[in-house]
Structure formats: structure tokens, C-alpha cells
Amino acid sequence: MSSLAGKTILFESVYLSHFASVAGPIENQGPLHEGFDWTYDDLYAGEKTFEKAERAMQSQAQDLCLKKAKLLKDDLFCVIGGDLENQLVASSFSARHLECPFIGVYAACATSALGLGLAGLVVEAVEQPVMVSISSHNATAERQYRYPVEYGIQKKPTCTYTATGAASFLLSHQKASIRLVGCTLGRIIDYGLKDANDMGSAMAPAAYDTIKRHLASRQQTCQDYDLIVTGDLSGFGAKMLKSLFQADDIDLSPYQDCGLMLYDVAHQKVYQGGSGAACSALVLASHLLPQLLSGQIKHLLYVPTGALLSKTSTAQKETIPCIAHAIEWEVCQ
Amino acid sequence: MDKQAYRDLVKQQQPKVPYLKNAITAFLVGGLIGALGQALVTLYMNWFGLNEQQAGTPMIVTLIAVACLLTGLGVFDKLAGHAGAGTFIPITGFANSMTSAALESRAEGLVSGVGSHMFSLGGTVITFGIVASFVIGVIRYVFFGG
Asked: Which Pfam families would you find in this protein's record (chain A) (predicted)?
């Protein structure tokens, strides 16, 4: 393990061995429906409350991941979990049944990359498998950050739709097809935007900062990658990110945003696209990692972004501090 | 690009809220709800032999019941997504704010859940409704002698 100027961490032998995803109903109607391991037809997922549904999804993704890896929960060194609920209850409650050390992390919608980066550090240090477990749920997020689910309100066109689902990733020091090359942890970036209904444009500068720092410290250009993805900037946010790079005369391509990949934005009622911690995690587990495995892409920069606001900070008219963490993946020869 | 330039760019390129379309839809839907209310008043007057003032109360109760039912069935929020102020301003909006908050907190129990959260959105209407009627009442008393 080493670190480069620009604070990029490079891993020597951290591999992604297995992964699993569980998705909700709207995600199942989207273009990536074939990639999910399990899906639910309603937001309750057979539980009595939305909160329980989110926990059940996360537990299920963890179990599926362990099953695929033919590992027992005792084989894990620890679990790193994160979600959007207050006190990370989805992650800590769903980790009850795993009975292994647990680390809860929060970086809003960038949680998956923070979890994967930290898991890389742990794997490098202890050379034992670590599981990363991420979830978000449209209804639990709506009630916590916005209004009751059934409240009738006209949404602004810049809104996004919080994804429902969970994904688990198993990182190990034992050689596998996909290698976690490195990670650049994000800085808190605040360009002074306040609109909680337009998080994409608030988060775009954070993605811009992290991508630029990662490329600079790795001495790469965007074209060194087969794909650069952001997590949930969605339509307008992705457009603003391109504008930021254009202003520097940098060609941000090949580039896509997970919020635009998870849903059929033209036909599903998701406004600018998807958001939430599960948005990027689901796209990674159902689409990007399978593409790496099949060789369709060989080098991927995964940069989920998070808006670190709360309902209180929004009500107090605070600006939105944002963060983006970058994870570099490559296919092993 | 500095922060101010970025903020200006966001402001300039942000997808605009279709205010005119929203206003027209709200006018039509709100008008439709008003017409429905008037039809109910006429109906109650003819059916139950009430006078216009008496028929007002069952009309309001009917509209509230329908709005609550549609909220419970998960239809109201979809309707309101299009109608906006058209369903929000009439009594239907208030009924929806109460019902949706109650539904949302039902898992936390009747007292600490439904009871305390039911007014979390609608409470502001009641607070300012009372404040406004107090102010108007004082003005009326002082200037027009009650």
C-alpha cells in the first residue's frame, strides 16, 4: 500500500471476489433489471415498515454475497456498512445477524465508495475478507429528508428519485478477476448552492475536484479509462460537471452517471434521474462489475457523490457541503 | 471556473419550473374541486332539505373524506403531482397533509406516532389560521366596533 501526492491511496493486492444486489420495484422496471440478484414488487418487501424493508434488503444482499463466495460469516474480518437513515440504523440493524466486527460509515450518496476505500485499507492491513454493505430506500429517505410518502406536492424539475435497494461487495487479498487499484478520498466542497431540490448541481463540483485530483496524482487523463462514472448527479448535475471540465478544456469522456443508468429517465417518473446511496451501488453491482468481468470495460473510475445536508440544515438555509470519493478498478490480466 | 461563475451558470441553465402550465392546471383542478363542492351543496340542499349554510358542513366533510381516502389508496400524491396548488389550496390539501403524516407515523404507535406527528405539516395552517383570525378580529373590533 502506498500513497501518492494528491492523497491517492494505491493498493497492492485488494480484489473484489463477489458481489450481490437486491432492488426495489421501480429499479426493477428500469434498464438494469436483468442484473439484480433479487427484486421486490413493492416498497415494503414483505415487511411491516419501510425501515424494516430496507434492513431486510441489506441482510439479503449480505447473505447472497456470502453464499456466492461460499464463505461463512465467521470468515469475514469485518463488515463496513452505510445507508441514509439517521444513526445508520439500516446498516447496523442488518449487521446484527452477521455477528462480526462492524464499522458504520456515512457519506450520503457517496457511501459506497467510502466503504470500498476503507475496506481496501483494512484488507491490505489484515489480509482477510471484508464485506461492504450499502442500502437506501426511497420511502425511508423521503420521510427523513423531505415529506411523508403520500404527501401531495409538486416536485421541482431538478429533483431526483432516491433508489431503493441494497448491494454487498466482498473484498479480499486473494487474487480475483477485478482489482481495486486505488482510491482518492474526497474533500468537502461547497460552492454555495442551497437548493435541496437540486443536489446534482451542488454535488458536481465535488466530483470535479475528486476526479481532477485522482487523475493528477495518477498522472492519467480521462481517456486512460474505459469509463468514468459519477454516482447520482443525474441529468442536470452531469451536465454541470461536463461544463466544469469544459471550462478547463478537459474532455470528460467516456463519462456516464449512475443516476441516468439505473432508470429509463425518459419514461419512468424519476425527474432528473436516480440518487441515494444504493443508486451507484446498484449500478456497480448489476452493471459495471459484470461489464468488468466480461471484459467489456477494463479500467473504471467510480466516483459517487454525496450531498451532506440534513433537513435541519436545509430549513436553516445553509449551503450544501458535498463530497465525492473515487475508486479505481481494473481487470486483472 | 470560480464559485460565483458556477452559481451563475447553474442559475442560468437550471431546468425551469413551468409556472404558467402549473398555474393553468391548478386553476382548472381547483375550479373543478370548487364546482364539485358547489354541486354537493346543491345536492345536500335538495336531498336533505338543508339551507345553503347548513349544507356547507357536510360538503366540506365529504371533500375531506374523499381526499383522505385517496391519500390512503396512494392516489392523491400522484394527482397532486400534476395539480399542484389546485389540490393543495382547497380543504383537500389540508386533509392530505394530515392523513399522509398520520399514515407515515402509524408504525411509531398511536400516541407518540400518529397523535404527535399528525399536525407536523398541517399544524402551520392551524397556527397561522388562528393568528390571522385574531389579527382580523382585533382590527374589526377596533375599527368597526365588533
From this structure: SpoVAD
Residue A148: is the preceding peptide bond cis (ω within 30°)? no
Q: Do A150 and B84 touch (CB under 8 A)?
A: no
Q: Are A203 and A233 in contact (CB under 8 A)?
A: yes
Q: Any CB–CB contact under 8 A between B91 and chain A?
A: no
Quick one: which of A292, A320, A290 has its CA closest to A308? A320
Q: Which domain range does residue B114 map to?
A: 110-146
Determine the pLDDT at residue A4.
72
Nearest residue on chain A to B75, alpha-carbon basis: A150
**Which residues on neighbouring strands pair with residue A329, listed in sequence order?**
A180, A300
Q: Which domains does chain A have, with CATH numbers?
A: 2-172 (3.40.47.40), 180-331 (3.40.47.40)
Q: Is A89 exposed, middle or buried (0-12, 13-18, 19+ CB in 10 A)?
A: middle
pLDDT of residue A148: 87
CB-closest option in A48, A143, A205 to B6: A205
Our count of domains for chain B comes to 2
Q: Specify whether B38 is located in the same domain as B22.
A: yes
Residue B4 located in a structural domain: no
pLDDT score of A179: 97
pLDDT at A149: 86
User: Burial, A233: exposed, middle or buried (Cβ in 10 Å; 0-12, 13-18, 19+)?
Assistant: buried
Give the closest of B6, B14, B72 to A158, CB-based. B14
The per-residue pLDDT for range A94-127, each reduced to its tens digit, is 999 998 999 999 999 999 999 999 999 999 999 9
pLDDT digits (tens, 9 = 90+) for A140-166: 999 898 888 888 888 899 999 999 999
Mutate to test the interface with B, among A138, A140, A153, A155 (most CBs of B within 10 A): A153
Q: Which three cell numbers stand for residue B132?
A: 390571522
Residues in chain A closer than 8 A to B86 (CB atoms)? none
Q: Is B79 on the interface with A (CB under 8 A)?
A: yes
Reduced to 3 states (helix: H, G, I; strand: E, B; else coil), residue A171 is strand
Q: Do A198 and B10 touch (CB under 8 A)?
A: yes
Q: Which DSSP string corresponds to A224-248?
A: GSSEEEESS-HHHHHHHHHHHHHHT
Q: What average pLDDT does chain A have?
A: 95
Q: What is the rounded average pLDDT of the residues B72-93?
A: 91
What pLDDT was estimated at residue A223? 97
Q: What is the ipTM of this complex?
A: 0.91
Side chain identity at residue A3, one-letter code: S
DSSP string, B44-109: HHHHH---HHHHHHHHHHHHHHHHHHHHHTT-HHHHHHHHTHHHHSSHHHHHHHHHHHHHHTGGG-
